[in-house]
Design a protein that fits this description.
By secondary structure, this protein is α/β, with parallel strands linked by helices. It is built from two helices and five strands, in the order βαβαβββ. Helices cover 17% and strands 24% of the residues. The chain has a five-stranded mixed β-sheet.
């Protein structure tokens, strides 16, 4: 059987942040900051981005994150999807997450995830320090998991 050396791989970049409130300006600021940080850290080539899924907690309902992303010319032609995140009692409020599927030249190509603002508490190992204090999620049923 002939072996094929395929270098390109589909990979995913994760990110999360929080809005300060349920308003269009606050959600816009959080989404643009998150996308900018992911772009900066990964030096994205937008011709290699496959699609983006945004999720928001149920307390954010003033605007779709994808609508905000489409305001940026380089995100306009990329398939974008918004979904509401499953509600879990005690979960992080005003949370916006994204999952960006991208082609990379190899499986070894570095990927840098971005967890900003209060979302740093979700993945402290992937947090981008920005001066936001961690929120205590110990009231969550899974506690310290």
């Amino acid at each position: 059987m002939e072996e094929h050396n395929v270098g390109w791989r589909v990979r995913a970049i994760r990110g999360a942040t929080t809005a300060t409130e349920n308003s269009i300006p606050a959600i816009r600021e959080a989404v643009l900051e998150l996308l900018s940080e992911i772009e900066r850290r990964n030096a994205l080539d937008f011709s290699e981005v496959i699609s983006v899924t945004f999720s928001v907690t149920r307390d954010l309902d003033q605007i779709f994150p994808a609508a905000i992303a489409r305001e940026c010319p380089h995100w306009r032609n990329i398939p974008l999807l918004d979904v509401q995140q499953m509600h879990v009692e005690g979960g992080l409020p005003y949370c916006i997450r994204c999952l960006i599927y991208v082609n990379t030249p190899s499986a070894d190509h570095p990927i840098y995830h971005a967890y900003l603002r209060h979302a740093q508490s979700l993945r402290p190992d992937l947090a981008v320090n920005g001066g936001y204090p961690s929120l205590e999620l110990s009231s969550h049923p899974l506690g310290s998991l």
